[in-house]
Design brief:
The chain contains 14 helices and 22 strands. It is α/β, with parallel strands linked by helices. Strands 1, 2, 3, 4, 5, 6 and 17 form a 7-stranded mixed sheet that branches.
């Protein structure tokens, strides 16, 4: 296609969204280049969901060894080597990085290992190569980076980025934050035998998720040994006598070996030349886009976490694909962000899709709730005290299932399948008409018949 410009499409950032957009656009015949200053694959592959899930797997074995005894297995003396886990994780990340590179090259996309900065709406400066290139369309897919607060001693703290490369596994760790990254890493460290404290400044973590799941997760994490402390934060970090000392807002003092912040992520929009190109940003520094991912400049687009719409890898991939279909495939597609199945690899694991009970009650006159909590069949012999929870949120007028919220083993796998039903607008009657698979925990999703009734609280005499 290329005409008066060097490229039909220039992509800044080779994460999940940028890679998908590049490949699909090239498939439509566009001349495409993508610039990446670190490694191809983005946060998810290099220092996010993939290595984190590998760490989650590693942390589960301590419980697996204990539970095996109830099934007749005798497990001998066990030990864990952190450096082996990190080395094997790095090998897998290198393998995935190579696959991403090969897929781009196979699609005919030029990969440029350089930081790229906008000079104007059609010109990109490649800082590493000290040259400019031009493009008809530009896509920004630079993702987001961990946030660190400005407090005394913050230089002693790490984020999830550094947690994947610690030279030694600490004996004690404090994780700060109340989102899914914080609870996942708290579970990882705790499962690997680290004395783990998690701090959150609010009254209950996992804000935005269903309240029943939030309550039960806190209960289950405490049962597993995580020291959860709500309504507190760190005001100062100091290093003394080979350890870190944390002064808290409640006046308490914690001594630890490692402090990890997971208190949110900021869009990577600093020093990208966005202002020079006239691109409008939001209050958090995110790029403002329309439903087709177009910015305030009609030839510049943005997808993924840098837009701060729904910061999940599959969403970035979907946005990148939709962008290429729209701009280069003449098939306008607007991504629907209203129903997004989500897995949280906490311990226990959670899966959720659709509206929470609180959100449904805000939007609908009436809401029916179906829920259950129980110990799984495996626990009858393993001795595990971990609970499973399943919850359906239903609109009684249309009988449509508005939300499904799960906690327990393989909830992430389950919610992918359930997400199809919710996306298609399945009704409670259709759930009920589905034959159960027995014996499974998931059969509860199609056998829940009794609506949950809130306890009646009588006024005191």
């Amino acid at each position: 296609m290329a005409g008066k410009y060097d490229y039909d499409l220039f992509v800044i950032g080779a994460g999940s969204g940028g890679v998908r957009a590049s490949r699909i656009a090239a498939g439509y015949g566009a001349k495409v280049a993508v610039a990446e200053e670190y490694r191809v694959g983005g946060t998810c592959v290099i220092r996010g969901c993939v290595p984190k899930k590998l760490f989650v797997y590693a942390s589960h074995f301590s419980e697996d060894f204990e539970e095996a005894a109830g099934f007749g297995w005798t497990v001998g003396e066990t030990s864990f080597d952190w450096k082996t886990l990190v080395t094997n994780k790095d090998k897998e990340i290198d393998r995935l990085n190579g696959i991403y590179i090969r897929n781009l090259e196979k699609a005919g996309v030029e990969i440029i290992a350089s930081r790229a900065v906008l000079k104007d709406r059609h010109t990109v400066h490649l800082a590493g190569e000290h040259r400019d290139v031009t493009a008809d369309k530009i896509l920004i897919a630079t993702g987001a980076a961990p946030f660190l607060p400005d407090i005394p001693g913050i230089e002693h703290a790490i984020t999830s980025n550094e947690a994947f490369h610690l030279e030694e596994l600490p004996k004690r760790v404090v994780v700060i934050g109340g989102g899914y990254i914080a609870v996942e890493f708290a579970g990882i460290f705790n499962g690997l035998g680290v004395e783990t404290v998690q701090l959150y400044r609010g009254s209950l973590f996992m804000r935005g998720f269903d309240d029943d799941l939030r309550d039960l997760l806190a209960e289950e994490m405490r049962k597993k040994g995580v020291d959860l402390r709500m309504n507190c934060d760190i005001v100062e970090i100091a290093r003394k006598d080979g350890e870190l000392r944390l002064k808290l807002t409640d006046g308490d003092l914690i001594k630890t070996d490692c402090v990890m912040y997971a208190t949110g992520r900021n869009p990577n929009t600093t020093d990208l030349g966005l202002e020079a190109a006239g691109i409008k940003l939001g209050k958090a520094g995110e790029i403002i886009v329309d439903k087709y991912s177009k910015t305030s400049i009609d030839n510049i687009y943005a997808v993924g976490d840098v837009t701060d719409r729904a910061n999940l890898t599959p969403v970035a991939i979907r946005e990148g694909h939709a962008f290429a279909d729209t701009v280069f495939g003449d098939k306008p597609i607007a991504v629907d962000h209203s129903v997004i199945p989500t897995a949280i690899f906490s311990q226990p694991e959670m899966g959720t899709v659709g509206l929470t009970e609180a959100d449904a009650r805000d939007r609908y006159d009436e809401v029916d709730i179906y829920k259950t909590a129980f110990r799984p069949l495996k626990a009858t012999l393993s001795g595990s005290r971990e609970m499973i929870m399943m919850k359906l949120v239903v609109d009684p007028k249309s009988d449509k299932v508005l939300g499904v919220h799960l906690m327990g083993p393989s909830s992430g796998e389950l919610i992918q399948a359930v997400g199809i039903a919710v996306t298609l607008g399945a009704t409670k009657a259709q759930f009920d008409a589905t034959i159960a698979v027995h014996p499974t925990a998931a059969e509860e999703l199609v056998t829940l018949k009794d609506k949950w009734q809130a306890p009646v609280v009588k006024a005191a005499d």
